Write the structure tokens for this entry.
Amino acid sequence: MHALRDDTYGRICELMYGAIGLSLNPSKKPLVSSRLAPRIQKLGMDGFEDYLSLITSDTDGGEFQMAVDLLTTNETYFFREPAHYDLLEQELARTRPRKLSVWSAASSFGDEAYSTAMLLSDQQQLGRIGSDWSILGTDISDRVLRSAMEAVYPEDRLRNVSPERLKRYCLRGEGPYEGLISLHPKVREHVRFGQLNLCKPIEDIGPFDVIFLRNVLIYFDAQTKREVVDRVLTQLKPGGLFFIGTAEGRVPCNTPLQSLAPGAFRKAAA
Ligand SMILES: C[S@@+](CC[C@H](N)C(=O)[O-])C[C@H]1O[C@@H](n2cnc3c(N)ncnc32)[C@H](O)[C@@H]1O
């Protein structure tokens, strides 16, 4: 197969930027090439130009979505950045809400949404929150959403889950399913998933009490980051909690926020 030409790479960058806000620079060319090349070979195509024609055609047979899946990184695991969950727990112990809605806004395989579900289920049992709580997980990628709905995980992804929670909420696979964990219906029943592109206008899906937007801003350039954060924050209630990845630095936005801890904020009261 021919090497990825600069002009073809430039068109792939424009396409991904326009569609999902993915900001690629020339240094990412080898990465893009190595992620797409096996797929192009599998399809029996001659090269990147043919692949670009396919993913920009009206009859791409879902290939554009496949390219998005290949170019985005979906790394996630249960109770990633645990200080955020501790902060949420303290908040609930203090406010004791009867109802609660949470949005995991780049949910990947669902680890963040289900971690939150375990925490909320515990809080419900402790009588700190009512039974009316729900979590929405959204992502751009079909593939991760399908997997999230199945709620079956390799054991390693639950390495931060406490033994008590493993016992309460997880079912270990046996025989051919050894090494896999499926989640108990009592956490699954509060969680739903749907596709949502953070770079397009968002219909009214909130308002939420808590929003996680963690480890996705890294994909975007400065302007897109600001637009995405402000757009997402329209769905957060005044006084609600907002989390970004702790490594994502200062939160770029025009919406007034109070900083609580690294990556943790409260939206100003109305
Ligand atoms: C690294 S994962 C973060 C998962 C989880 N929030 C965490 O912190 O563990 C980033 C996710 O953002 C999703 N993503 C990238 N661009 C997106 C966009 N424009 N709209 C919605 N999701 C997007 C990717 O598909 C990926 O699943």
User: Anything to note?
Assistant: The chain has ten helices and ten strands. The chain has a mean pLDDT of 95. Residues 82-267 form a domain with the Rossmann fold fold (CATH 3.40.50.150). The CA atoms of residues 143 and 227 lie 26 Å apart.
